[in-house]
Amino acid sequence: DTAVSQTPKYLVTQMGNDKSIKCEQNLGHDTMYWYKQDSKKFLKIMFSYNNKELIINETVPNRFSPKSPDKAHLNLHINSLELGDSAVYFCASSRISTGSGYTFGSGTRLTVV
Amino acid sequence: DQQVKQNSPSLSVQEGRISILNCDYTNSMFDYFLWYKKYPAEGPTFLISISSIKDKNEDGRFTVFLNKSAKHLSLHIVPSQPGDSAVYFCASYSGGYQKVTFGTGTKLQVIP
Q1: Could you read off the pLDDT of A3-59 as tens digits, one per residue?
Q2: Residue A14 touches chain B, beta carbons under 8 Å
Q3: pLDDT tens digits, B26-35
C-alpha cells in the first residue's frame, strides 16, 4: 500500500513532446512537492502545494505546470520537452508541522531524446 | 548558491564501526535539519531530524549533532551495518512551509 505513488516510473520521449507525471498520496498530508534530481544529483525543489494552493514556485521554465485537483494529488505537466529536462523527478508530501520530514515517491526517470 | 553542502561524496566503513557523515550550511535562518537515506531506484526516506534549539538528537543507532556556531551538523551511525549502505542527504529548512534545501549526498558503503 504505497504512501506516495508516482506514475510512470520511467518515461522516454522525444524533444518537443508534451508529457505528464502523476502523483498521489494516501497519507492525509496537506502539502505536496515536486523535486528534480539532475545529473549532478542535486535535489532541487520546483513546486509546492498546500491544500491545492501553490505556495512555492521556484525558478522553473513556464513549460512546467503543476496541477493539484485535490490535496491528495499533484501532477506535473511539461510542454515542449528539451534535452535538459532529462532527470529524475520526485514527488513528496508532508504535514505542515515543525520537524516532520517529507515522504517521497520512488521517482520518475525522464529521458528526453 | 549552495546553502547545504556535503563535501564528502563517498565514505567506506567496516561493519560494526562508526560512520560519521558531515554537513555544512550557510543560512543561519534554518530552523530544522534533517537526514534522509536513499537506496537506488527509490525515493529518499526520512531518517532523523533536529531542531535548531537542540544540539543532539538520538534514535537507536542514529545520532545527529548540531553545532550552530560552526554551522555544521553530523550524523553518527553506530554500529554500522551493511544495510546502511546508501546515499545520505543532509537537508534543512526554515519557516512553516518546509521549503527543504538538500545537500548533494554522501554515498556510504559499509563493508562486511
Answers
A1: 999 999 999 999 999 999 999 999 998 889 999 998 878 899 999 888 888 888 887
A2: no
A3: 988 888 899 9
pLDDT averaged over every residue in chain B: 93
Residue B108 in 3-state DSSP?
A: strand
Contact (Cβ atoms closer than 8 angstroms) between residue B5 and residue B74:
no
| Mean pLDDT value of segment B93-99 | 71
Q: Which residue has the cell 549502505?
A: B85
Are B51 and A40 inside 8 Å of each other by CB?
no
**Domain spans of chain A, in order of start:** 4-97
Does the beta carbon of B39 lie under 8 angstroms from any beta carbon of chain A? Answer: no
Are residues A90 and B98, on separate chains, in Cβ contact within 8 Å? no
Query: Rounded distance, CA A106 to CA B32, Å?
Result: 24
Q: Tell which phi-psi region holds residue B98, choosing left (phi > 0), alpha (psi between -120 and 50) or beta.
A: left
Reduced to 3 states (helix: H, G, I; strand: E, B; else coil), residue A86 is coil
Pick the CATH number of A4-97 from 3.40.309.10, 2.120.10.30, 3.60.150.10, 2.60.40.10: 2.60.40.10
Compute the half-sphere exposure of residue B20: CA atoms within 13 Å on the CB side of its CA: 6
CB atoms within 10 A of CB B13: 19
Predicted local distance difference test score (pLDDT) of residue A98: 47
